[in-house]
Amino acid sequence: MNTTLEMMERIPFFSGFSHAEKEMLAVGNRSFVRFKDGEVIIQQGDFKNSAVFIILTGAASVRKEEYRNHIIDYIETGSIVGEAAFLVNGRSRMASIIADGIVEAFTLDRNTMEQFDCALQLKITRKLAEIIVERLDKMHSAMAALID
Asked: Using the 8-state DSSP alphabet, how is residue 18 labeled?
């Protein structure tokens, strides 16, 4: 079985982190979570759990309450979910994320984040901000394609 650190080494999100920083993040596997098939990783509307999840292995579906019978998107190994609620205190979850088979994820909550030095906190925050900007760019392109 792969360790959390070995799985992190293969995920693009962690590519800018030093080996020592990855070890700090993965210490004691406190940041490792396993979900069973059909288990809820994130529940839409939840504002109490603001952890971010980085999928280390497996896949999941993205669903919205308004469209219960439809899968909005699929996420796979390397995907990051929950970044908006993690970065913006008190923000409720925008969608539900449901495990499609076994999912192993790195998770980080605010309490754990606050234990890291400022440089590591800044690095994590910048990486998450980059992901949000990339998603906005993708959404804008998709909207522009609809208008054309």
From this structure: -
Alpha-carbon distance of 4 to 62, in angstroms, equals 24
92-137 pLDDT per residue, tens? 999 999 999 999 999 999 888 998 999 999 999 999 999 999 989 8
Per-residue HEC secondary structure of 106-142 comes to EEECHHHHCCCCHHHHHHHHHHHHHHHHHHHHHHHHH
CA 137 to chain CA centroid, nearest Å: 18
* Burial of residue 97 (number of CB atoms within 10 Å: 0-12, 13-18, 19+): buried
Give bridge partners of residue 80 from the DSSP assignment.
54
For the segment 34-81, what is each residue's pLDDT rounded down to a tens digit? Answer: 999 999 999 999 988 889 999 999 999 999 988 877 898 999 999 999
At 82-95, the pLDDT tens digits run 999 999 987 899 99
Fold of 4-147: Jelly Rolls (2.60.120)
Exposure of 56 in the CB half-sphere (CA atoms within 13 A): 22
